[in-house]
Amino acid sequence: MGNKKLLFNIYTLGCKVNQCDSAEISRSLRGAGFKVVEKNAAWAIVNSCAVTATAIRKTRQMIAKARRENPEAKIVLSGCWPSAYWSEAKKNSSCAYFFKVNERKKIVNLIVGSQGQTKLEPTACACLIGQKIRYFLKVQDGCQQFCTYCLVPYVRSRLWSKPIKQAVLEVKSALQAGAKEIVISGTHLGWYGKDKKDKKHNTQNLTALVKAILAVPGLPRLRLSSLEPNEVSDELLDLVKKNHNFCPFFHLPLQAGSDRVLKAMGRPYSAQEYIRVISRIRKKIPLAAVSADIIVGFPGETEKDFTATLSLVKKIKFSRLHVFPFSTHEKTAASRFPEQIDNREIKKRADIIRRLGLASAREYQNKFINRSVQVLIEKKIAGAYIGKSEYYFNVPIKAKGNKLVKSGDLVIVPPRGIEPRFRE
Ligand code: SF4
């Protein structure tokens, strides 16, 4: 297999931004003549997550897996774990090199430099071949909102936005390489362009970016990954309404339905304000998918607060709910709050609200049975093609006798039932 020293592998944990970062490292290395392999690589990069204690445990397991699968590899640990807990990560892992989240160029230079090559300045558009059908386009990094439970501002505080021209070029390259859906991603997307110094003449904002991408000829599908609820503008909603290829999907982290808890979390909206955002969305786009994150067991969350969250979730009827049991980080303000909730109680509340989330997802998906949705076929599993609808739920399509469908196709079909994982 050629020069074994040019083989590398990347293991990624955590959010879409981390996945984008790994893809950037991979593109740069491939652009410099390196090759991705699944095992026996010379370099194994573990791009870590530290958002919860579980994420750190999974990172440790991933390092062990990387070592097993690449026994002779030099292991590089990057991402949020070394960024947030440098000494702990160094002490508790057996990796050879450590890099923080914004040190991707250093990783590439280390690996490329090990072959005596000139150090490489990675370019975002280098070598997009081999990307997935759904392309995560990272356009923004950094958050300084400091919600009291969140580690992100401690590891990704520097604000950065990709220039619109560069984003458009990257979209064109991704489409040429076979991507069918562009997912605009960032740590805090609503802050896109906020890093620009010239506030008065700054034309770089999220709607301007979306308009520029929608103008790319032949763009099959566009989606926003996630938005803060207070950052959904009417202009953006109009763009979704008017452009059939801009998915009617909104992931708006709610976190809690009690104003008291939202305030303690440092979230800049009330429960009523959140409801008003959802009403604005549904008034313009009645069938829009609205999903959310919820944190249960935040310090001081009483039964009454939890009931307020349950009522809000029942009222809104989310298309999907992601439930996170609260877990502390010593760096965040919430870890020092009194009235930490017992883990058993957190688990009990998480189970209750997860059940509600599943019922809500079923109710939402039921609306589409025997109605037409547009499915982007991604893979074939156990005799069925699976793809995502514009509303973000998976739709299986029978593969037997269906020679017309293949990965990467966009097909219009009526879903025959709800996604298996949401069934009762
Ligand atoms: S907005 Fe809040 S939850 Fe989101 S990344 Fe920033 S600090 Fe974290």
Task: Profile the largest sheet.
Answer: 5 strands, parallel
Strand content: 15-25%
Bound molecules: iron/sulfur cluster
Total of helices: 13
> Total strand count, please?
16
In CATH, the architecture of the largest domain is 2-Layer Sandwich
Cofactor: [4Fe-4S] cluster
Domain MTTase N-terminal: 6-116
InterPro entries: Elp3/MiaA/NifB-like_rSAM (IPR006638), Methylthiotransferase (IPR005839), Methylthiotransferase_N (IPR013848), Methylthiotransferase_N_sf (IPR038135), MiaB-like_bact (IPR006467), rSAM (IPR007197), rSAM_horseshoe (IPR023404), rSAM_sf (IPR058240)
GO molecular function, one term: 4 iron, 4 sulfur cluster binding
Attribute tags:
424 residues; alpha/beta; Rossmann fold; Transcription Regulator spoIIAA; five-stranded parallel sheet; 16 strands; globular; binds iron/sulfur cluster
Task: Report on this structure.
The chain is 35% helix and 20% strand. The chain is an alpha/beta fold and 424 residues long. The protein has four domains: 4-113, 3-Layer(aba) Sandwich (Rossmann fold); 128-247, Transcription Regulator spoIIAA (2-Layer Sandwich); 248-367, Transcription Regulator spoIIAA; 373-422. The protein has a five-stranded parallel sheet with strand order 2-1-3-4-5, sandwiched between helices. Strand 13 and strand 14 (384-389) form a beta hairpin. The longest helix is centred in the C-terminal third of the chain and has 24 residues, at 343-366. It starts with 6 loop residues before the first strand and ends in an 11-residue tail after the last strand. The relative contact order is 0.08. Bound molecules: iron/sulfur cluster. The site of iron/sulfur cluster has 10 residues, from helix 6. It holds the Pfam family UPF0004. GO terms for molecular function: 4 iron, 4 sulfur cluster binding; metal ion binding; tRNA (N(6)-L-threonylcarbamoyladenosine(37)-C(2))-methylthiotransferase activity.
